[in-house]
Specification:
A hairpin with a 7-residue loop joins strand 3 and strand 4. The protein is an alpha/beta fold. Helix 2 packs parallel to helix 9.
């Protein structure tokens, strides 16, 4: 079991956890992830390692409540434990001095992009970061990214902060302003697909991090299969990062929707259970 040292909400349904995992903290590199499980019968959830502290023996993960298990994880607090934390898994990000880099983080994708953006800056790149979200309250890790990024831009769908509109609008502005050598985009499938379409037009090297359905994280189950460059790949061992211009986003979207109905049913049952617990506490006077 791995003890939770810190737990903090970054927005309504996004929570940061600092977890004791000394061996993972020592070995992890930017772009790698862990698979967590909170109970013997629970599902396995892949989550990118946002940060680590070798001296304290901890790793940091950021979880967004989307389904039953992730919402259960959001209920955990400092002092609680996670049954399994397996990793580091996946291939580390290829880091080099490209020159002028733009990193795009959409929603919780910002937590996935964070360690790679930091590694790119350490390698001597000029790093511009665009953070996108539905509304200003969903912008995460702004302060942490501002500590190392050369420029930070905000876009929101509703215009509550920064530029109103899609994150690709600001990316195109930067492309028009000057030469961009490398783009990293992490967020929803539509967002990454839109970035790939845009940068393909200008011949800009672009990488995305995929997050398909995943069970074991070792390539055995085949659940994370995707089409990249016309070939089947297993995201957990061949990725999670790939050339954005070679990813078949249509296939990725179809595979991610296979269990959508079951996930919604499971989430509905989870909400009923939560309401029952709250009602029981109210009746007992807690």
């Amino acid at each position: 079991m791995n003890k939770i040292v810190e737990a903090e909400f970054l927005s309504d349904n996004i929570k940061k956890f600092v977890i004791e995992a000394p061996q993972i903290a020592e070995k992890r590199k930017a772009g790698q992830f862990v698979v967590v499980r909170i109970s013997q019968t629970g599902e396995r959830i892949p989550i990118t390692i946002a940060n680590s502290d070798i001296e304290k023996g901890t790793i940091t993960i950021v979880v967004q409540g989307a389904g039953k298990t992730t919402n259960q994880i959001l209920q955990l607090e400092a002092g609680d434990t996670i049954l399994d934390v397996v990793g580091p898994l996946g291939k580390p990000t290829h880091i080099e001095n490209y020159g002028n880099c733009v990193v795009l983080g959409g929603g919780v994708g910002t937590a996935i992009a964070f360690p790679t953006a930091k590694a790119l800056k350490k390698a001597g790149n000029y790093v511009s970061v665009i953070l996108g979200a539905k509304t200003s309250s969903h912008i995460i890790l702004r302060d942490e990214i501002s500590e190392f990024a050369d420029e930070v831009y905000i876009t929101t769908d509703d215009g509550t902060e920064g530029l109103k509109g899609l994150i690709t609008v600001k990316l195109k502005d930067l492309i028009m302003e000057g030469k961009i050598d490398f783009v990293l985009a992490i967020g929803s499938i539509p967002m990454m697909a839109a970035v790939a379409d845009l940068t393909r037009t200008y011949g800009i090297k672009t990488v995305v991090s995929l997050n398909p359905i995943m069970l074991d994280g070792t390539g055995m189950c085949g659940g994370c299969r995707a089409r990249v460059g016309g070939k089947n790949v297993f995201v957990c061992v061949d990725g999670p990062e790939f050339d954005a211009h070679e990813v078949d986003f249509n296939v990725l979207k179809q595979r991610n929707e296979i269990y959508k109905d079951k996930e919604q049913l499971s989430l509905h049952q989870c909400n009923i259970e939560k309401q029952a617990v709250l009602l029981e506490k109210q009746q007992s006077g807690e």
